[in-house]
Specification:
The complex is a heterotrimer of chains A (258), B (300) and C (155). Chain A is mainly α. Chain A is 86% helix and 0% strand. The chains are: A mainly alpha (258), B alpha/beta (300), C alpha/beta (155). Chain A: GO terms for molecular function: phospholipid transporter activity.
């Protein structure tokens, strides 16, 4: 009995210590004078591997999710003779929820896990230590550009996801199922607002970007530098980041639309 | 400042160190003086924390107690930025080489120069080629680290370590896992770097024969502290059991073959053997036989 | 050289992102002139347009011939004035045509139903900028129920 209490206490302490480590890591990585000339190429390199390389999976899944939304929405709405509402249904679900959330989940799986594994492996092969011994702060050289790359990339990916998804809904709804094209767009336009829907979706996406990238970097930077440790850290990144995104999404939705 | 301080680049005094908050001390009352401009070998059985020693000197780990002075600066007391300033004067050759896997050999060696200077590209190229020439890898400049053999990777890492002309190089197990030829190459490189550039070298290793040929001073670490120090000749002449065990590589001696633990019998029977009764001893010796067979099976 | 390629790719990435944002902003959340080809404009005044919106379709017998391009309030009594953009292919509506606000299905969107009037020598064709006089307003559920109850009470 006491052992279990002790185990609980230890896990709570470990969690708090982990959160503290993550906080210190982020602060150290982001505070300090930026050297634009040196950090710009690094940022570009990371934007490429984190953002550009995630583009394919984002576009493909966005298209399919939009198409499924179009198909499902149509079969439900047509019973009420309200298939013209397909446009706003597709657009609002994508802009408010699916765009930011699914992008964040895919991002955690695609880019987050690779960030964790990359940094974990750099730690295991002593590359991080060797940076430190070269008097180069790995937080500034390795963590910081990856953080900003994730933070900037994800909202862009989410916007692309929503746009492609709406197009997918249009393909199925209008081109295939024959919803009136003008009604599709006009009803969408009269229901979608810049500030309420598009902007809030982008804000959500920024929050998710912050959290997912942070978790991925922290898990990699503080992993046990063995093969088991890295694989655990990678799994843990995907699980923790996904749960954090879904939980935060509820809170944000309640604040924005509640 | 005493005259000894002038001659010693690194002075370690009364250092206690344990990982994390653990009670298992790695070092207790460690004292070392690394002479400037010389090759110092640090030897000891595996798992004694030799790499930890290098990390302590490099400031990556902080001792719980004691001082580590590098050129007069107490490393554990330095602020972060002051520590980074001092690190520019030292460098470390990691066991794995730790080359950056996403850069070519050339870029790897140019990396510390680019980070710490604003030199134009032509000068950087000259420096990099000079360093590569020193380790004999000028022809491999465009290869990626994954394309190098273990020995070449370590030489490339050595070229990177000397890129900024440090005062101190720490070699972490430079000979581990090398074939005799590349081992000979690295021995020669350490020696020639020390001779030509006057770089102070600390070589952590357990390859006795190789390091004794080039070392000016040798420390043997065991049991959380320095147990012997001196020139290679002094150590060879030493009558200390442990020194002799280590230098000649005998399996058992002051450094026990077995890792500390409960006695074998206690592990197997759950109690110490009862030597009073003759019968029970007979019975138990039978049991022990069968238990040993089991134990061997498990070990296999 | 390698970093230049990365920069280029990131540049395209950002441009795609901006285009997607423009698409969302202009296509999904704003008005734009979607129809192309020759058009002309007709006007109609209603008492009540119900749920009619800009870009709602104008149909003749279920076939879309144009779109509502603007809805304003007009005149001293603030009557809703609807501007329709009709495809120039259909320019033979007589001025006896009527237009009414209709609903597609029970819960569907509202649209304008245009019924071509009779044609003989005495009537003229509708031209660009003409008003359709004969209009039927949208049916408002509350009004209908009110009328129903009122007529019940009179019996």
């Amino acid at each position: 009995m006491l052992d279990k209490v002790a185990a609980l206490g230890k896990s709570v302490l470990d969690t708090i210590a982990g959160a503290g480590q993550a906080m210190v890591m982020l602060l150290r990585a982001l505070i300090g004078k930026p050297q634009l000339r040196k950090s710009w190429p690094l940022l570009m390199q990371q934007m490429y591997s984190v953002g550009v390389l995630s583009l394919v999976i984002i576009v493909v899944s966005g298209l399919f999710i939009g198409m499924v939304l179009g198909l499902q929405g149509y079969t439900i709405l047509v019973d009420f003779g309200a298939e013209q509402s397909l446009g706003p249904m597709v657009a609002l679900s994508l802009l408010r929820e699916l765009g930011p959330v699914v992008t964040a989940l895919l991002f955690a799986g695609r880019a987050g896990s690779s960030l964790t594994a990359e940094i974990g492996l750099m730690k295991a092969t002593e590359q991080l230590s060797s940076l430190e011994m070269m008097a180069v702060d790995p937080l500034r050289r390795v963590i910081s550009p990856r953080f900003w790359a994730g933070f900037y990339s994800m909202p862009i990916l989410a916007i692309i996801f929503s746009a492609v998804g709406i197009y997918g809904g249009y393909l199925v709804g209008v081109r295939w199922l024959g919803v009136d094209e003008g009604a599709f767009w006009s009803v969408m336009q009269s229901n979608v607002e810049w500030g309420q829907d598009i902007l809030n979706g982008i804000i959500k996406s920024l929050v998710f970007a912050f959290v997912v990238t942070w978790i991925a970097l922290h898990k990699g930077f503080h992993c046990t530098p063995t093969s088991v440790g890295i694989s655990r850290a990678t799994t843990s990144t995907v699980v923790t980041a996904s749960l954090a995104v879904l939980g935060l999404d509820f809170v944000l939705t309640a604040l924005m639309f509640g | 400042m005493t005259s000894a301080d002038v001659d010693d680049l690194v002075v370690i005094e009364n250092v206690d160190f344990a990982h994390g908050y653990g009670a298992n001390k790695v070092y207790k009352g460690l004292e070392m003086r690394i002479p400037r401009g010389k090759i110092t070998a640090v030897m000891g059985p595996s798992g004694i924390g030799k790499t930890t020693l290098l990390r302590l000197i490099g400031g990556q780990l902080k001792p719980q107690h004691g001082s580590i002075k590098f050129a007069g600066h107490d490393i554990p007391q330095l602020s972060r930025s002051a520590l980074y300033e001092q690190r520019k004067r030292m460098s470390m050759l990691f066991q794995s080489g730790a080359l950056f896997t996403d850069m070519s050999v050339y870029e790897n060696i140019a990396f510390p120069i680019r980070e710490h200077s604003d030199l134009p590209e032509e000068i950087i190229e000259t420096i990099v080629l000079m360093k590569l020439e020193a380790v004999g890898l000028r022809g491999a400049r465009d290869l990626m680290p994954a394309e190098l053999s273990g020995g070449m990777a370590r030489r490339a890492a050595l070229a990177r370590a000397i890129a900024l002309d440090p005062e101190l190089i720490m070699y972490d197990e430079p000979f581990a896992g090398q074939d005799p030829i590349s081992m000979g190459v690295i021995v020669k490189l350490i020696k020639s770097l020390n001779n030509s550039l006057g770089i102070t070298s600390i070589v952590v290793t357990h390859d006795v024969a190789e390091v004794l040929t080039i070392a000016d001073k040798v420390f043997i670490i065991a049991d959380k502290k320095v147990v012997a120090e001196g020139t290679p000749d002094e150590l060879k002449a030493s009558d200390d059991d442990l020194v002799q065990q280590f230098l000649s590589g005998e399996p058992d001696g002051p450094v026990a073959f077995h890792y500390d633990g409960p006695s074998f019998a206690k592990d197997i029977f759950g109690q110490e053997l009862d030597s009073d009764s003759e019968k029970s001893r007979e019975r138990e010796s039978k049991q022990q036989e069968s238990a040993e067979q089991k134990g061997n099976g498990n070990a296999g | 050289m390698e970093s230049r390629n990365a920069q280029l790719a990131v540049g395209f990435f950002v441009i795609i992102g901006v285009l997607a944002l423009l698409f969302l902003g202009l296509r999904a959340a704003n008005t734009s002139i979607g129809s192309n080809g020759e058009t002309y404009k007709l006007y109609a005044k209603f008492d009540n347009i119900g749920g009619l919106k800009e870009r709602s379709p104008v149909k003749v017998g279920g076939v879309v011939v144009g779109r509502v391009s603007r809805i304003t309030l007009d005149g001293d009594y603030y009557e809703p004035l609807v501007e329709m953009t009709i495809s120039a292919k259909y320019d033979e509506f007589s001025n006896t045509s009527s237009v009414s606000v209709l609903t597609s299905g029970l819960l569907g969107e509202q649209y304008l139903g245009l019924s071509p009037g009779f044609i003989d020598d005495t009537v003229e064709m509708l031209d660009d900028g003409d008003y359709i006089q004969d209009t039927k307003s949208a049916l408002v559920l509350e009004d209908l129920i009110g009328q129903f109850l009122f007529s019940q009470g009179n019996d």
